[in-house]
Design a protein that fits this description.
This protein is an alpha+beta fold and about 80 residues long. The protein is built from three helices and two strands.
Length: about 80
């Protein structure tokens, strides 16, 4: 029996690339990378850097039932 051939990172399809934890950059793929790797339609249209993806969230504002504004800091 022949062993299945291993694919290199350049040979992976877009779907396979997104399911490989070492190669998946989430929304940090640039437009050129999305086109080259066949990722169009598989990711949201926005491109966000890895730094923005791992940054802690800032304060979140929510309206209360009495109409006042409450701010919660979820970063800590």
């Amino acid at each position: 029996m022949n062993a299945p051939a291993k694919l290199t990172a350049k040979q992976l399809t877009g779907y396979d690339r997104l399911h490989n934890a070492r190669l998946n950059k989430g929304t940090a793929f640039t437009e050129a990378e999305r086109s080259a790797f066949g990722l169009e339609g598989l990711l949201p249209p926005a491109v966000l850097s890895l730094e923005l993806q791992v940054a802690p969230p800032g304060p979140i504002a929510c309206a209360t039932t009495k109409g006042t504004l409450m701010i919660a800091d979820k970063g800590l």
